[in-house]
Design goal:
- By secondary structure, this protein is mainly alpha-helical.
- Helices cover 45% and strands 6% of the residues.
- The protein has 4 helices and 2 strands; from the N terminus they run αααββα.
- Strands 1-2 form a two-stranded antiparallel ribbon.
- A hairpin with a 6-residue loop joins strand 1 and strand 2.
- Helix 1 packs across helix 3, helix 1 packs antiparallel against helix 4 and helix 2 crosses helix 3.
- The protein is globular, with a radius of gyration of 14 Å.
- The termini are far apart.
């Protein structure tokens, strides 16, 4: 008989790059401040990313690492484990200063 997996969301999260952590923190801070999530274009403008597609790439990586779940609707991102807890952990779980998907250094 298999044991149930741990319920702690942090158990399944993988570390983020510094840039991914910045994207996640911005998403969380915006949601806490305004009560709703930013669009991809709004995130791109705040983060200085040249396109919404660049933000979508970062969100896909954050989702693969277990921090968020996205639906196929605008502004439909669920932060796994709660907003404040995810923000705190995102500050602690940064792996390096290089984005693996585009190889840019952030610092």
């Amino acid at each position: 008989m298999r044991a149930d997996p741990p319920t702690d969301a942090a158990t399944y999260r993988r570390p983020l790059t510094a840039r991914q952590a910045a994207v996640l923190r911005t998403l969380i801070d915006w949601t806490l401040a305004d009560g709703f999530q930013p669009s991809l274009a709004e995130l791109a403008a705040v983060l200085g990313v040249s396109s919404a597609a660049g933000v979508a790439c970062h969100l896909a990586a954050i989702e693969r690492k277990g921090w968020i779940e996205r639906a196929r609707q605008p502004r439909a991102v669920r932060i796994i484990g709660g907003l404040r807890e995810a923000r705190r952990l995102a500050l602690e779980m940064v792996e390096d200063e290089r984005c693996r998907s585009c190889s840019k250094s952030w610092g």
